[in-house]
Fold:
Amino acid sequence: MDDVKLAAIAAECRVQIIRMLTHAGSGHPGGSLSVIDLVTTLLFDRMRHDPKRPDWPDRDRLILSKGHAVPALYAAMARAGYFPEERLITLRKLGSPLQGHPDRVALPGIEAATGSLGQGLSIATGMALGLRTAGSPARVYCIMGDGEIQEGQVWEAAMAAPQLGKPAHPLDNLVAILDYNRIQLDDFVAKIRDLEPVGAKWKAFGWPVIEIDGHDTAQIKKALDEAEATRGGPTFIVAHTVKGKGVSFMENNVEWHGKAPKPAEAVEAIREILGVSPAAWDDHLRTDTATRRLVDELRALEKK
Amino acid sequence: MAAKASRAAFGEALLDLGAREPRIVTLDADLSKSTMTMHFAKKYPDRAYNIGIAEANMIGIGAGLALTGKIPFVCSFACFIVGRFETIRISVGYTNANVKIVGTHSGIAIGEDGYSQMGLEDIACIRALPNIPIIQPADELETKQAIAYAVEHEGPLYLRLTRQNLEDVCPPDYRFRLGTWLVLRPGSDVTLVGSGGTVFNCVQAATLLAADGISAEVINAASIKPLDEDLLLRSAGKTGHVVTVEDHSIEGGLGGAVAEVLGELLPTPLKRLGVRGFGESGDPKGLYAKHGLDPAGIASSARKFLNR
Structure:
């Protein structure tokens, strides 16, 4: 898929992320907005998957290990056709399959329960091993947060994955991606527990490391190409991202790690994501009826 | 059959089942010589993974393998594997991955290595998870059937095995079923509920009690979750006194599970025997005597309990 179309899908998903978090009244916008270009590029350009057959054995798998960013995944899954878009606003509500963190049992298409940080890469490694030994062509992608890789289990998996399956079944079907947005819940990662030199660490554990701008879909695709062409083991991609990307007041702001926007903030965020100036906004809403409805829907929440 | 450790029976069972079920794989964390999966690894080297001393990663990889259709047995000492509880909780439990978690070296019966190697809280931990059955077989026959059951069972499961040899207690025609207990010896004055390594001691305690004119019913509770509520209530209703005997912390294990059921459905005087405090180094017999889990200790507790 071309980069313009991918960017448009990512923007749509960003709008939906803001929408569902505002309805939910809680959740994690910062990390959802930093990861969304990675998620949409994977789902719409790269992965072989079928929303009608979420249990297709040879599907490519995406493990969102940083499960708190699941609004990004839900938005992309709805856009891809896993479930109706209307369901997005049930996020975090009683009885919804859209749990606050991914629930594999509740929502077909979710590959594993994540959100208890540090566990996804081990699961992805096991999947890659299972698929390889079964002769499946399927690939496995695991997205981790930067704060997340402070967890020890990540490094257990980092040590094991480049060695497992060798020599007959090396895990070159596995790609780990770091959403390096530089902010964790409490503060900047570098202030809490610095990861640097993060690329050198993964290299030392045996992973080829590719560094990219995680919002540049061309760069994401190129890195995924490189990973796919790599033989003999898994690949690690350091995706440099911006926390809260696309919404100026959320960008690089620790405060927006885990706080839902108020309706007025949500409308402002959506205006920015759509790239409409404040002066042109009212005119825009007169012609863009879909956004008009969305804005009305969000403003109605104010009165609740 | 001669006395055999349930870990040894497990190792043998895997060899047999591995030939019939190609989806079985084993994962170890540098203890395959102790968990007895080394035999499987030797026979099926491409289906056995030694992950290294990284139990959480082993459990997670097991979950990933299960999600691609394998039937992984992830194996370590009970304390080390259940010690990675959060990974079991999310990657296996909540994910509902078809992982067979095997904890060997359960209880103070491991003796000299001391507390840090003793699985004493594993039942309490796993019991709190909604979808992981717990099986603790009492002899070779039951272990082999339990392993076969684990392969058939769709979903996660916890097997608690012993380092020490276990005497045969089940009859030759015994068939293991999840949620079903076995009366090894009928009685009318008191019910002794044992599991795993304590079952044979309960049988011997019943013999001692019989000499004092006390008729003890002995139950082998291999299925700790779910319990056999019907059998428990029937036996408790008949004898009016229940004693649980387990090589596990006195809190949260078999005794706790039995107390929950009796407390809600049929309040019955209950005496729980188990391990109080941390374990310690020592010879296994001495440790069992200290904690009252040997036949004499069980019989003595039962007598006191019955005021006889």
